[in-house]
């Protein structure tokens, strides 16, 4: 059972880099790790996905160590519009999907 | 292109009643999954369907059921509603199933159906 845990909340100033870590100690061999962003009254929105090492796209980077028991979402130079809840999702080699507890990020001007 | 659409957006029911929630996936997506999100918590996986077959089921009682139609739309049914069923019900669609390496399993979510049980 791949349970995931994240810090409940984080604050950051505009323009800073933000790193949010998710722990998933029981991740299965074929599980992928995906991060989503959610604004109030909306469904989660895809940010980035990876299996191991480092993945980068136009909005974020994802770092996954060799043991894959954790992952870190890195948001470069955050702005006020990045204030949201961020979830990691681990799944689904066993046809199950496990969302993390969510990290509420507040970006301060 | 239209995203994932869900209906109704809001509804109020009383304990013991039945509810049906509907979801239309993105055109071309063959997989639909359902999630329950209680206020202040992360989404909890309920079901996944691919090509009209149930492919995964979360830890929810038998009062919860779902199906996928030939046009890939889906319904989530909840019987004998309890106060604890009050939540945002999210539907997500994806191109494929268990095809993680290509990105075909990336989920696109709808805005959800907000269910209140009184």
Task: Give Rg of chain B in angstroms.
Answer: 14 Å
Give the overall shape of chain A, derived from the CA principal axes. Answer: globular
Low-pLDDT segments of chain A: none
Helix content of chain A: under 10%
Describe the secondary structure blueprint for this structure.
The complex is a heterodimer of chains A (109) and B (118).
Chain A: E1 9-13, E2 18-23, E3 32-38, E4 45-50, E5 53-56, E6 61-64, E7 70-75, E8 84-91, E9 97-99, E10 103-108
Parallel strand pairs in A: 1-10
Antiparallel strand pairs in A: 2-7, 3-4, 3-8, 5-6, 6-7, 8-9, 8-10
Chain B: E1 5-7, E2 10-13, E3 19-24, E4 31-37, E5 44-50, E6 53-57, E7 64-68, E8 74-78, E9 87-94, E10 108-109, E11 113-117
Parallel strand pairs in B: 2-11
Antiparallel strand pairs in B: 1-3, 3-8, 4-5, 4-9, 5-6, 7-8, 9-10, 9-11
Descriptive tags:
heterodimer; A: 109 residues; six-stranded mixed β-sheet; four-stranded antiparallel β-sheet; 50% strand; B: seven-stranded mixed β-sheet; 11 strands
In short, what is this structure?
Chain A has 109 residues and is mostly beta strands.
Describe the protein:
The complex is a heterodimer of chains A (109) and B (118). With 109 residues, chain A is mainly β. Helices cover 0% and strands 50% of the residues of chain A. In chain A, a hairpin with a 4-residue loop joins strand 5 and strand 6. The termini of chain A are far apart. The model of chain A has no long low-confidence stretch (mean pLDDT 92). Chain B is an all-beta fold. Chain B is 0% helix and 48% strand. Chain B contains no helices and eleven strands. In chain B, the strands form two sheets. In chain B, strands 2, 4, 5, 6, 9, 10 and 11 form a seven-stranded mixed beta sheet that branches. In chain B, strands 1-3-8-7 form a four-stranded antiparallel beta sheet, with no helix packed on it. Chain B is globular and about 45 Å long. The relative contact order of chain B is 0.32. The model of chain B has no long low-confidence stretch (mean pLDDT 94). The interface between A and B is medium-sized, with 26 and 27 residues.
